[in-house]
Amino acid sequence: MDHKYIEKMLSKMDEDLSKNGMSRRDAMKLAGIAGAGMFMGGATAASAAEEAAAKSNAKGKIVIVGGGLAGMSTAARLTLNLKNPDITVIEPQELSVSYQPGQTLVGAGIWDEDDIAYKRDDFVPDGVKIIKERAILFNPQENKLTTDKGTVVSYDYLILATGLHLDFERIRGLEEAGRAMSAGDNERLLKALGDDGICSIYTAKGATKTWEQMQKYIAQAKSGKKTKFVFTHPNTPVKCGGAPKKIMYLTNARLKEAGARENAELTFYPNGGAMFGVPEYHDAILGQFKREDFKWHYRHNLIEVDKEKKIAVFDAKWQEKGPWDPVLKDFEVIPKHEKVRVPYDFLHITPPQLAPREIAESDLGSAKGWVPVNKETLQHIRYENVFSLGDVAQVPMGKTGGSARKQYKVVVENLIALMNGKKLESKYAGYTVCPLITDIGTVMLAEFDWTVKPTPSFPLDPTVERWIWWLMKVYALKPMTIYGMLSGRA
């Protein structure tokens, strides 16, 4: 653990707390947190006891494709639970374990890109082999895969944690951007977006570019010119469904800070028909939008960008009542759609997202591309020796770091059970958490699962924005992730 970072984090937290006349201990009591372990990301008494427990003698060659948060955390936890682990991680990206949730904060100038960059090789668990290549061909019938450099890797058990791809090339006018990942070389994408108001926080370097563009157009608004800020949300599943709104809230905060808000129009264009899938959170967000004088238009999917004219083109959908159907004894519903052209000065794009081609086009993928798994056990529906977790797994909701934190423990427990010939009893209940930043200094901690109801971990109303959750977001969640999950304990 980086103790200097922890000390710095706690010092900043104490400084913020003191402004509100509160100690760190009182803050944790307020949040219902039993101790500092959560903030520190270190081992609790429970995790220490777990580590000391008898390890399994189960044997087998385990290959994990993907060395990001989900994959590397799974590798670490397996080493804690197996006496003689034989684990290989296949991951080409040097910065694969970088802290992606921090990209929103980078995009608003609160953090720098260096604050979220972490090297893969610093987090490879002892005894785990690493292949710095990309898996491109899968042969699950023979329990083999092939990398982009021609390396053939065999396995007894396979875990897919590849993450997803950002499909910018699907948007007309941005075809040259291709597909991108959060980490790695994204110069092609940045070149395609240009320097005239188009941005996206969905890559690390893109988040830095977002802050540069945001400042440019805040200055324009401050000069007295009416400035249009447009934010999109696509018609595909996305990682961290709250992020498209978070960057909008933070842009609003920076505009107010600069005294430029009255000259800015902020408009949100989601593909869906609600702000959030959980009604209680939808209602809370709608209230926040009205309070901040945001505009919004449901069922609008970005399909084209005219960079020269600065026009965003959306496919807008709605339904109209048709003629009476005497058989069904009801009016027909006729789907309608049209292209809507929206001028912008600043355009934040949340790109369409999809499974990597090598997964989607293999026998391990589904018709939609994602890895089809039992949503509770996370075991592949066709290949019992294959599991999947994280963004690439085909489960309802669940594309967040908070989801991966629950999923990787389920995968480890069920994989070891399978290796021992036992029933898979560990279940993922769909837990997802979204610390929805609503201002610089406030966060609404939206927790939920497949019940589609709020499932708060703390004894506080989860629909209320609180500065205590801001402190957790800015100071606590990164060390809990980097030094907790990636050690296999958090």
Automatic annotation (TrEMBL):
<dbReference type="GO" id="GO:0070224">
    <property type="term" value="F:sulfide:quinone oxidoreductase activity"/>
</dbReference>
<dbReference type="GO" id="GO:0071949">
    <property type="term" value="F:FAD binding"/>
</dbReference>
<dbReference type="InterPro" id="IPR036188">
    <property type="entry name" value="FAD/NAD-bd_sf"/>
</dbReference>
<feature type="domain" description="FAD/NAD(P)-binding">
    <location>
        <begin position="61"/>
        <end position="180"/>
    </location>
</feature>
<dbReference type="InterPro" id="IPR015904">
    <property type="entry name" value="Sulphide_quinone_reductase"/>
</dbReference>
<keyword id="KW-0560">Oxidoreductase</keyword>
<dbReference type="GO" id="GO:0070221">
    <property type="term" value="P:sulfide oxidation, using sulfide:quinone oxidoreductase"/>
</dbReference>
<keyword id="KW-0809">Transit peptide</keyword>
<keyword id="KW-0874">Quinone</keyword>
<keyword id="KW-0285">Flavoprotein</keyword>
<dbReference type="InterPro" id="IPR006311">
    <property type="entry name" value="TAT_signal"/>
</dbReference>
<dbReference type="GO" id="GO:0048038">
    <property type="term" value="F:quinone binding"/>
</dbReference>
<keyword id="KW-0274">FAD</keyword>
<protein>
    <submittedName>
        <fullName>Sulfide:quinone reductase</fullName>
    </submittedName>
</protein>
<dbReference type="Pfam" id="PF07992">
    <property type="entry name" value="Pyr_redox_2"/>
</dbReference>
<dbReference type="InterPro" id="IPR023753">
    <property type="entry name" value="FAD/NAD-binding_dom"/>
</dbReference>
